[in-house]
Amino acid sequence: MDEIDELTEFLQKLTPLSRSCLLSELERLELCGIDMPGSAEIQAKLRAEFRKDGSTQARAANPSRYFFAPLELLLIDGAPEHPNAGRISRNTLTPIWEWICRDLLPTMARDYVKAINEQVSSNNPKEVLKVATTFQVKVVKVLENTLASAESTEFARAKLAQYTASRTAFDDVKKMQQVLRAGDALPKFNEKLPATITKFDDGQVAQITALLDAFKKTNPEALPFALALVARRLKMSWQLVRLATKAAPSKSAADVAATPYACVVPMALDRLDDKRLALRIALRHNRVLVARDLLAEIYDTEYALKVRIDGLENCEWGVRLQQLMDAIATLVSAEVSRFPANVGHILGSRRLRSQDTLSGRLSYLAWKGRDAVQDGAAAFRKLIGAT
Description:
Layout: H1 2-13, H2 16-31, H3 39-50, H4 62-67, E1 75-76, E2 88-89, H5 93-104, H6 106-121, H7 125-146, H8 150-160, H9 169-182, H10 185-192, H11 202-218, H12 223-233, H13 242-245, H14 253-257, H15 264-284, H16 288-308, H17 316-336, H18 358-386
Helix pairs in contact: 2-3, 5-6, 6-7, 7-9, 11-12, 15-16, 15-17
């Protein structure tokens, strides 16, 4: 009881912003698989203060929520400690906001918070947007100066590290800068996209590619975010790879890597890594059915990449894919080994690999037949052109 009282007293000495930052950091560490004794009790206390609905995912307080609003469609829950092109971790927003308020622009941040609270209280949404936009512009300009030299960049990185141990937080700062700099270009692009893309066939690929080409001309550094918005519409995130494979003259990894949208392949691998982390958490909490669905998606992604890109195993993409699948296999093996050998485990079922079913094998043969026809036609056109 004495330790609990001391802990409660310590937490109350922190500012509300610091307590919110502490909660986000503890949740991030937990999602990364790091066990911290007493963390559950601290998180429960802090959630009771900041999240009346008991949510385990961070939601920014009002002033910062308006500031981060342009990022909303690009946020992902969880705490990935790996590259995640085009997306920003929601858990890094609280430490980034505290860094902005305490170190980057403390005076302007206080003025912004005061102004935004006044406009919210007056129920004036237009002025709220105006105040938020003005502060966003100021932050972008300061970041441009801050990141202009290696020395000031490292100083800023060290300051941010005082609020979070996340290896990706500073990358998220740079992503935030790129999104804010793009202004309304991303929302306008988002409005042009179909509500959902149920079948990412040749026609849809051509339509989306045309939209991306136009966007890239004026906002090249924001392209990963536009691609992330496309991925949100897809039934399966790996389908994004078709933007590169459809544009390549052949299925070879080298030809795919030479296309304008080759970056979608590492983006698909980023999402596969997200599923690996989600699988680990599901297994840790004995959510076997959730783990089963995740594993099926993982196998589908692996299969799709290998089928659509020839020679994948011999390039950097293939090396990363194999590392991910090895890590996933280790997780599954550890789970399955908990049960006697004569007891079948749902995660060991071959049904999870849809490509091992009859329909899966027929689809594979159909793809191979289509590829052979297309490759033959391409060779014929090249021959005719040579003569």
